[in-house]
Amino acid sequence: MVINEEEFQEVRKAVEGKKTLILVGNCYAEYYGRATSKIAEGDRIVIIKRDGSFLVHQNKKLAAINYQPPNSRVSCELLDGCLLLQARNPKKKEMLKVLFNKLYYAGSFELKDDENITVFATEEDLARDLMQDLSVIEEGLVPLKNEAMVLKGFIDILAEDKQGRLVVIEVKRRVATLDAVSQLKRYVAEVMKEKNKPVRGILCAPSISPNAHAYLLREGFEYRKIEYDPLNKEKWIKGVSKKQKPLAEFMS
Amino acid sequence: MVINEEEFQEVRKAVEGKKTLILVGNCYAEYYGRATSKIAEGDRIVIIKRDGSFLVHQNKKLAAINYQPPNSRVSCELLDGCLLLQARNPKKKEMLKVLFNKLYYAGSFELKDDENITVFATEEDLARDLMQDLSVIEEGLVPLKNEAMVLKGFIDILAEDKQGRLVVIEVKRRVATLDAVSQLKRYVAEVMKEKNKPVRGILCAPSISPNAHAYLLREGFEYRKIEYDPLNKEKWIKGVSKKQKPLAEFMS
DNA sequence: GCGATCAGCGGCACG
DNA sequence: CGTGCCGTTGATCGC
């Protein structure tokens, strides 16, 4: 009997009362569902959130080793002095079991937080602000906003060049890889088929891997380097200055 | 003065002593680096691991809203009665700041855990065990293990059909999407160029999206449905029975 | 270190 | 719901 009744009641009340529960202790864990996993006993942290999210963390790495998404049904029981937690997703036939044989800490909390995080410098931000001034990509490019919407919905920027040719522009916020070229290729083929005329493809990214570049050129597409700094308030995209969304303020 | 000196010393000792630290309280958070983010004050959970991993969790959803990868340099200070935590990655010029104005809990732990999780039913597992009996994909297929290694290293399975044609097989553990077809296409093109002869492409997955299937057929490739159950010990891949890696044991 | 790919990816937006 | 795709993706493995 390692887990005492008092601790268990704390856990039970948290699980039943939909509070947020934090556990630290020595546990074994196993999962089955989309795959199966197991890990022998070790000291870990478990977080069970109000919405049924379930996390098992080792004391290293960023990612949880086991988890269950929101809306999982959590149960707890005392089994031979051990605390057994189970998080099920009946629809997906998934189950995560965590068996604690030691508990260093158990605490439950009612956390009030209605805030949403705002993130800046996403691919969407890049594409939107680039569209305000496509000259950084190529002189004379004119964005065709509505076209892009109607046509696909996935194309970052659809534009027309000086010669009146359609240009599909794929924007990447980090190193462009083979995937990005494949993606561009699909979009170009799509538009070309739709419009029944030649379409150019431009890949915009801070850099591109050698393989991706070779693939790109082989397909007849073009690469344009873009540089950006999320903290530069006036011109966060190098070479683009007008009509940019103002940056969020940050303390020094 | 909301954070008391005693709590702060607990935090400071944990941060300096490379212990694992868990904080629960009301905080504001901001990040800058690859992007920028900020979120107004709310009740959240912070975990700082021994290796410098830093996590900020809201009381909903599975994913952390802010984080810093392993090896970040963490510092803490008391500022106007508030606890300021900073996690920096000098090389990437990244910084995460968390400012607590209330602390409901602060605990530090020395967690001992040398175990590694074992996961079964990954794509690698699927490909390896399928290779033991390719008849479930097509009668007469013979795997060319060494070829695949030498040729690329990324092709899941390279085989030869009854007519002696090369067959590139891409295996997916879940719904095959457009990406998977693009990937297969790249590999087929690669092998075709290398060997200078026609190459077939087969996409193996539990299911395939309509768009992906259309794209696949348009490219002249083929789809083969595979069904598997990670918990079925004798035949976890339907139709494949021999030489399979034994499944890990799970309690009922 | 970069490059390529998988992940029980998670999350979001759209149809 | 599925489909598609981004993500401060993270993590792994090969070079």
For the biggest β-sheet of chain A, the strand order reads 4-3-2-1-7-6-5
Multimerization state? homodimer
- Element-level helix/strand string of chain A: HEEEEEEEEHEHEEHEHE
> Roughly what is the average pLDDT of chain A, rounded to an integer?
92
- Characterize the largest beta sheet of chain A: strand count, sense, and whether it forms a barrel: 7 strands, antiparallel
The poorly predicted ranges of chain A are none
Largest interface: A-B, 68 and 68 residues
> Span between N and C termini of chain A?
52 Å
Classification by helices and strands of chain A: alpha+beta
Q: Rounded to an integer, what's the Rg of chain A over CA atoms?
A: 26 Å
Number of helices of chain A: 5
Q: Shape of chain A from CA axes?
A: elongated
Q: What is the percentage of strand-forming residues of chain A?
A: 35-45%
What proportion of the residues of chain A is helical, as a percent range? 10-25%
The total of beta strands of chain A comes to 13
Describe it for me?
Two copies of one chain form a homodimer. Chain A has 252 residues and is an alpha+beta fold. The first copy, chain A, contains five helices and 13 strands. In chain A, the strands form two sheets. A seven-stranded antiparallel beta sheet of chain A has the order 4-3-2-1-7-6-5, covered by helices on one side. In chain A, helix 4 (178-195) runs parallel beside helix 5 (210-218). The N and C termini of chain A lie far apart (52 Å). Chains A and B meet through strand 1, strand 2, strand 7, strand 8 and helix 4 of A and strand 1, strand 2, strand 7, strand 8 and helix 4 of B. The first copy, chain A, binds a DNA duplex (15 and 15 nucleotides) through residues 31-37, 61-63, 66-69, 92, 94, 96, 119, 121-124, 153-154, 173-175, 177-179, 183, 209-212, 230.
